[in-house]
Amino acid sequence: MAIIVRLDVMLARRKMTSRELAQKIGISEQNLSLLKSGKVRGVRFETLSAICEALDCQPGDLLEHEKA
Amino acid sequence: MSKKPDIESIVRSAKSSAGLLQALLFLLLGVGIAAIVVAIESPNTIEELLIGKTVYEGAELSALQLSVLMVLTLSQLLLWGVAVNSTRMSFAQIASDRAAEAANSAARAAKYLWVGLAWSVLAQMPFSVIATWHYPVGERILAVELDWLHFAMLFVALIIGFYSRLIRLGAELWQDHKEIV
């Protein structure tokens, strides 16, 4: 997929674990792991907004488009 | 925004429905075993239950006739039992987040209901012949009766068929929903 998820980079910058983020935004660790590895078909605005709120960042910090 | 479903309560509800159907299954099994025991202990009682009072004085069913009638009756009970078990499995699979398998089980339950319905009509033919085999030649009966109960069952089987399709579509929707976090 041409969209790359940079969630792991942002988690490292904020020194936060996946478990902490999952608990903060109210989704399962399994789903967060799928999102981190880009193995999902889509992400809800609601989830994206909650992640941005928890990591104090913008959607553009988490997602990147790679030209094919 | 719609309220998020509480997974715990969905699982609990599916498990309790599966438990109820399990109880129904045991009830059907109990009825089957009781019928066999009564047939062995008191053949006259089961004869009266199955075919009512005979119209010919002194004409009694042989043990073989009664056995075949019991097999026909129990086969009907078995078909209902299989349909109930498929529905129970469907709920158990929903409880363990296997929606696609649950849809397959629901479709199987609908199929067994149709088979049960067809058998309840068709089995009347061998049933009536065997039940009247001891009558004088010329008085034996081959009968098929369609009453309002069969039409009610037809309607129920039709609705259940549509419900199983609904579950299949719901399972596909759920799969799509799961891939979006």
Describe this structure as you would to a colleague.
Chain B: Keywords: Membrane, Transmembrane, Transmembrane helix. Chain B: This is DUF2975 domain-containing protein. Chain A: GO terms for molecular function: DNA binding. The complex is a heterodimer of chains A (68) and B (181). By secondary structure, chain A is mostly helical. Chain A has one domain: 434 Repressor (Amino-terminal Domain) (Orthogonal Bundle). Chain A has 5 helices and 2 strands. A two-stranded antiparallel sheet of chain A has the order 1-2. The longest helix of chain A has 11 residues. The mean pLDDT of chain A is 91. By secondary structure, chain B is an all-alpha fold. Chain B has one domain. In chain B, 77% of the residues lie in helices and 0% in strands. In chain B, helix 3 packs antiparallel against helix 4 and helix 4 runs antiparallel to helix 6. Chain B is elongated, with a radius of gyration of 22 Å. The relative contact order of chain B is 0.11. The model of chain B has no long low-confidence stretch (mean pLDDT 87). The chains are: A mainly alpha (68), B mainly alpha (181). The interface between A and B is small, with 12 and 5 residues.
Fill in the keyword field for this structure:
heterodimer, A: 68 residues, 434 Repressor (Amino-terminal Domain), 5 helices, 2 strands, 56% helix, globular, B: 181 residues, 6 helices, 77% helix, elongated, Cro/C1-type_HTH (chain A), Transcriptional regulator, XRE family protein (chain A)
How much strand content do the residues of chain B show?
under 5%
Number of helices of chain A: 5
Helix content of chain A: 55-70%
Measured distance between first and last alpha carbons of chain B? 15 Å
CATH-defined fold name of chain A? 434 Repressor (Amino-terminal Domain)
**How many DSSP helices of chain B?**
6
